[in-house]
Design a protein that fits this description.
This protein is an alpha/beta fold and 430 residues long. 30% of the residues lie in helices and 22% in strands. The chain has three domains: 185 residues, ANL, N-terminal domain (Rossmann fold, 3-Layer(aba) Sandwich), CATH 3.40.50.12780; 121 residues, 3-Layer(aba) Sandwich (Rossmann fold); 90 residues, 2-Layer Sandwich (GMP Synthetase, Chain A, domain 3). It is built from 13 helices and 19 strands. It has a seven-stranded mixed β-sheet, sandwiched between helices. Strands 10-11-12-13 form a four-stranded antiparallel β-sheet. Strand 1 and strand 2 form a beta hairpin. Helix 12 packs across helix 13. It starts with 7 loop residues before the first helix and ends in a 9-residue tail after the last strand. Bound molecules: zinc ion (ZN).
């Protein structure tokens, strides 16, 4: 099948389409993808036959919304029946942090389709030809796999450090930072936050080594405005950008206005739905549904990620017509307290209203009593104005009771998973 994003010029022109033009363009892609999936992938054929939907008749976004959503469990149960027979050559495992992992295939054709949005995101973040970029390594995510290609095509130079994004490799990262002097860095937010936490009296304290770095692009945690300021200030870099995406094909990048990451609408079609599966308006939260707009690699059509997300209302001053979407939390970074789904992002927003608490690691604790409306939060360091914080948590998050566990000297690594199971840890005072 023809790659509909094969023209670079076309890919950039698409940013300036009006909302109606973009919707028409995406509807054509959705129909092509659905026709392909129906013909080639037994899982989708059987699912859509049962639901009584016909890919060939798909003529509007409303038609598409009648296609059933699918979950990770559906695909795990379907086994090989759901994968594209022309699946590709590289496999990535997804969501091992929330249940059984799913193997996702990436092909060269699909990677090609995702390099252009990566280039676009890096340009938005200020990358210019001739710069050196220190990139995430090893390549553990399909979007990270595109980064070196994007930098090379933008006329830049790539640098990598030895190791993974584990905290034991911060020295290796800092060593490469000192020797390569990059102007541009991509990394994960937990890794960067762990690095910032190093002893402030240390002669190799991070900001000296970050001298000359203009942009840092982070993935892995949704940034709160205060967390961005904190990182900018501690590292003394010009700006910090948030990249988002999922192994199933969602891809987002922030422009310099930071009004929420723009969706790369030429490679993915994203929806936000409520519990009844109805689209929710911008500004309101729901579950993120992902459809990939290429037929290469694993096929995802209306995949329910379980992530909590919301489209941003209004337009961005940058002029790009792509919608903006904030992913607030994943199943592994949220707890259900009573009937309210609370993300670690929500708790951080609350906690960071006190400047003394910005930059501290915060974890949600999942316990038996969360059902009864009790929110338990573990906060790094010593207690600081606990009564006021409890009142803020109760008021802003609408919970009956907010318990705070102050972790004192107990260091908990920053991670993607921001929820502790109360049974697996023994917290101070418990
Ligand atoms: Zn923008």
């Amino acid at each position: 099948m023809r790659d509909t994003t094969s023209s670079c010029a076309r890919s950039e022109a698409i940013e300036t389409l009006s909302g109606a033009q973009l919707t028409a363009w995406q509807t054509d892609r959705l129909r092509e993808v659905a026709i392909y999936a129906y013909r080639e992938v037994p899982f989708y054929r059987q699912l859509w036959d049962r639901a009584g939907v016909e890919p060939g008749l798909l003529g509007s976004i409303e038609d598409f919304a009648r296609f059933p959503t699918i979950s990770k469990d559906d695909l795990v149960q379907a086994g090989n029946c759901w994968t594209n027979p022309h699946q590709g050559s590289v496999a990535f495992s997804t969501r091992g942090t929330s249940g059984a992992p799913l193997l996702v295939w990436l092909s060269a054709e699909e990677e090609e389709a995702y390099i252009r949005p990566t280039m676009r995101g890096f340009r938005w973040a200020g990358f210019q030809p001739g710069m050196t970029a220190l990139l995430m390594s090893p390549v553990w995510h399909r979007l990270a796999a595109c980064e070196a290609h994007a930098i090379a095509r933008l006329g830049g130079r790539c640098a990598f450090f030895w190791g993974s994004m584990g905290t034991e490799y911060t020295d290796s990262f800092l060593h490469t930072l000192a020797s390569e002097r990059p102007e541009f860095i991509t990394t994960t937010a937990p890794f960067l936050l762990s690095l910032v936490r190093r002893s402030p009296g240390d002669a190799t304290r991070p900001h000296k080594l970050f001298k000359g770095v203009r942009s840092v692009v982070v993935v892995g945690l949704p940034l709160t405005p205060r967390m961005r300021e904190f990182l900018r200030d501690r590292l003394q870099v010009e700006d910090v950008f948030e990249r988002g995406g999922t192994q199933e094909g969602a891809a987002t990048d922030e422009c310099r206005w930071h009004t929420a990451p723009h969706v790369h609408e030429d490679v993915c079609y994203l929806e936000v739905v409520d519990d009844a599966g109805i689209h929710v308006a911008p500004g309101f939260r729901g579950r993120l549904i992902v459809t990939k707009l290429t037929t290469a690699g694993s096929i995802f059509v209306r995949y329910d990620t379980g992530d909590v997300a919301a489209f941003a209302p209004g337009e961005c001053p940058c002029g790009c017509g792509f919608r903006r979407l904030k992913i607030y939390g994943r199943p592994e970074s949220s707890v259900l307290v009573g009937d309210r789904l609370i993300t670690a992002y929500d708790v951080r927003m609350c906690i960071e209203e006190d400047p003394a608490l910005v930059g501290r690691n915060v974890l949600l604790v999942r316990e038996a009593n969360t059902r009864a409306g009790v929110l338990t939060v573990a906060v790094e360091g010593d207690a600081h104005d606990p009564a006021k914080l409890q009142a803020r948590l109760r008021e802003q998050l609408g919970v009956a009771t907010a318990d705070i566990v102050w972790l004192g000297d107990l260091r908990v690594n920053w991670g993607f998973r921001q929820v502790l199971d109360g049974r697996e840890v023994r917290l101070p005072g418990s």
